[in-house]
Amino acid sequence: MIGYSLLAELTNKTFWTFSAWENRDRLDEFAGSSPHSQIIQGLRPKTDKPIVKFVDGVDGSQLPWGWAEVKRQLQENLG
């Protein structure tokens, strides 16, 4: 992992996470490993369906993105 960030909008009960990875293989390895996979399985019944967006091919010099850019990327790519 290169870096990550969490934004908690407590009044909306909304949590945003953003992470940057060296490559997709590293991300997949993390997502399938414990404790991450166990935590996600435990949270599923308590949460609405998450929105997951992957952006590939970002030059590391473009990071870090602020939350305005993360949300813009989501809106642009999810329609």
Describe the protein's topology.
Layout: E1 3-9, E2 14-20, H1 24-31, H2 36-43, H3 67-78
Antiparallel strand pairs: 1-2
Walkthrough of the structure:
- This protein has 79 residues and is an alpha+beta fold.
- The chain has one domain (3-78).
- It is 35% helix and 18% strand.
- The protein contains 3 helices and 2 strands.
- It has helices spanning 24-31, 36-43, 67-78, and strands at residues 3-9, 14-20.
- Strands 1-2 form a two-stranded antiparallel ribbon.
- Strand 1 and strand 2 form a beta hairpin.
- The longest helix has 12 residues, at 67-78.
- The protein is globular and about 35 Å long.
- 1% of the residues are buried.
- The model has no long low-confidence stretch (mean pLDDT 86).
Summary keywords:
two-stranded antiparallel sheet; 79 residues
Low-confidence stretches: none
Structural Rg: 14 Å
Judged by helices, strands and strand pairing, the structural class is alpha+beta
Number of domains: 1
Number of helical regions: 3
What's this entry about, in short?
The chain has 79 residues and is of the alpha+beta class.
